[in-house]
């Protein structure tokens, strides 16, 4: 739950199932020193207000005696009322060097989101001693930095074995190969006839499982406000469950209800997006994987794992797309090789039946083959690696500049023509025809001829419009490329069909940062800031148009210049 409901109302509903564990023992709170509290009948304890107007920074606990015998880690589960912002901390008596205030080694669910809901955090204490060496002869303390609100702890227990919640949060199940039921609605053995959407999956919120804060919603991970926004379109969360929504606090919808956002670090939300793909006839996605974030490959693969599961459940197809932005020089090849080997050998991603293949090999897209970013030698080394026969070989889709055919550097020109599938990035490239601003498709015919001449293929980039005023801190409307009610998007599908193209990439499924999202966005966003809307068109309008465009490219509907469906 992320709504600001009262903690007492949710207490029984949320915590009753969590303590069914044979070896859990309840910890006793102790009001002492800098951790004074008042007991709340049936609702645990709440920190007291101090003379300076702030609340006690800690609440101390003691384990009841006699202690059960244990040699390994201790697991603490903490049920609390989510008030304030920032992380909860746990410090305990440790054996090592008789550390009286040792910080918990592992923690999940501890980031406060100020939702007012009852939540549970779980900690692993690898070196616990519990010798009552903290203030008031206690064994551990819970703290937080936001002393403007009280710590409100409903219950704390410990166990000598991993609790079900700890197992759930620590196993990172998205890494393991998918073994559930699978549908095969979309042929995953070929790129031909496919329209794939880019899936960023990079949105995070305080209180979600990633605990990274307002990622890709705000410049400030701990705070979201009109002056911190980095996105252009407010998502339509009408269909979302409460467990998928996160309060923003500083934004209100026109009907007076608190405005909420979603996190991509949620299997339910990724499932919902794939359900939309099924409903509107979208084949699948290229899941974006940012090379700069692969130092922790497991966490970086969270949304990829969620997408794998959703693709199997819905019969969609998926593949990985590396984004090389922000990583330069020789480390690019090293990072990509290491990560792709991990994905192939540990996550076994290319063995999944829903992973997209083409000409008998797995598909891999890489965005960022730009001559102003690195030397052509590195580009050739990257291409060499993926063309080498073996387990890591792939059909390489290369994201490059739209003007790639005019490249003067001979080695870069040769590198472009070694890519198996060209995907020139066309977002922002426009032309005026008949007094209307549309996406430029003038280079497509030449691109198609060049790729076919060299035994390669072309995947044009189609986009619905554009805007990044909030991201770039520009005056309202400065960067906007109007969608023209969907005509901007449809014209590109028509052009691709007329040229005989048999595949396309739609930028993007969920990219509200640059205003290219085709998923459901709101026409009634909060009034506290400026957002781009769909000008009153239904929130699913662009999902419907991409579905129609897919059928057009596949020859499943006749070619018509005008949008063939009504809002």
What labels describe this entry?
23% strand, ten-stranded mixed β-sheet, 567 residues, seven-stranded antiparallel β-sheet, disordered N terminus, TIM Barrel, Jelly Rolls, globular, alpha/beta
| CATH class descriptor name of the largest domain | Alpha Beta
Tell how many strands the DSSP assignment holds: 28
Tell me the Rg in angstroms. Answer: 26 Å
Based on the coordinates given, report the CATH architecture of the largest domain: Alpha-Beta Barrel
Task: Write down the overall geometry.
Answer: globular
Gap between N and C termini: 34 Å
Describe this structure in words.
This protein is of the alpha/beta class. Strands 15, 18, 19, 20, 21, 22, 23, 26, 27 and 28 form a 10-stranded mixed β-sheet that branches. Strands 1, 3, 4, 6, 10, 12 and 14 form a 7-stranded antiparallel β-sheet that branches. Strands 2-5-13-8-9 form a 5-stranded antiparallel β-sheet, with no helix packed on it. The two termini are 34 Å apart. β3 and β4 form a beta hairpin. Mean pLDDT is 94; it is low at 1-6 and 8-22. The protein has helices spanning 7-15, 164-170, 267-280, 297-300, 302-314, 331-345, 376-387, 410-416, 444-453, 469-472, 487-498, 541-553; strands spanning 24-26, 28-30, 37-39, 45-47, 58-62, 74-81, 85-87, 89-92, 102-103, 106-108, 111-113, 118-125, 140-143, 152-159, 195-199, 245-252, 258-262, 284-290, 317-323, 357-358, 361-367, 395-401, 421-425, 430-433, 436-439, 457-458, 461-462, 504-506. α11 (487-498) runs parallel beside α12. It has 2 domains: 7-171, Jelly Rolls; 195-553, Alpha-Beta Barrel (TIM Barrel), CATH 3.20.20.
